[in-house]
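At this stage, I needed to go through a protein sequence along with its fold in token form, as given directly below:
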Amino acid sequence: MSAPATDRPPTTPAQEPRRSRHRTPLVGTWGLPVLTVLLFAVFALALPSTFPTATNMRAILTNQSIPALLALGAMIPIVTGRFDLSIGYGIGLAHVVAMWLLVNTDLSWPVVLLLVVASGVVIGLANGLLVEAAQIDSFIATLGTGSVLYALTGWITGGGRIVPGTEGLPAAFTDLTNSTFLLLPVTFWYVVVLGVLLWVALEHLPIGRYLYVVGANPRAAALVGIRSSRTIVLAFVGSAVVTALAGVLLAAQQQIGDPSAGQSYLLPAFVGALLGSTTIKPGRANAVGTLVAVAVLAVGLSGLQQLGAAFWTTPLFNGLTLLAAVGLAGYAARRRQRAGAAAGAAGRSSGGSAPTPGPGSPPSAPGTTSSS
């Protein structure tokens, strides 16, 4: 007996992943940018005289630039499946060290900037070696180094604040955050530049693919010759350097050394980095998604504060958003793994080879398969 004819033409293995990509939910990819626009529209209608104004937009861009930089820095280790919990303490130490050097020494601010960045490299190396060489879980390792950094901050300041003298800080230093470029705060452009650099590195350079494949499948990374340990250490160094730069900018912005200032930046940074992995490229951390997530947080917090929300609304909003971000990020990652496993199974059942990864996908290791 012959098999019944079907109207659907046979498919090739190469066609299956293409269909899977077309079935990717638009809500997952573009839901967060749409939500940002909707939130802005709602607050603009509710607060027409204060929210949709140039003054408020400049305030949002200025106030959210440092959280955005930290979110991008926190995203780098997350790409490898690790977390850097020391960034909140790192930015506190960096801005205190910058203030102490400017107030108590004759060093110029460019030299101070270089010294603080160099300290960021040392901190990143310490974090990376603790995680890879000592094989300590990244949560525990970076929480421990963060506590040490906080202790150093208290030792430098004696528990008090560092206040410049009557002459103040150098004008060129404070202009790092107080000036404008193309009618927008210069801090906004720092975020744009860093976002573009990370986007290029992660999406178009080999280092980006190395980071992604180490985070997705360490065994596959070893099989294709990627040095996972070195890649992870570099990720922590990148995170610490971005944190150090953010600390210098915080010193220029606040013009005072506050030993407890950095801790409030930890939660928003991780909310932005984790929530960003649920959009644009759902299931993996990415620079554009992180910036979109920071925009959602910035618009939401600004609108709530202008509506007269209580002071505890900010930590409540950040905490609930973090829980939602972790849940959504996990769901998006599992969905991505199931899609990859289904595409691979379809290719093998058809007698063909597994589909070739696209430009934005990490390389596959020979002889390995994904598991859902």
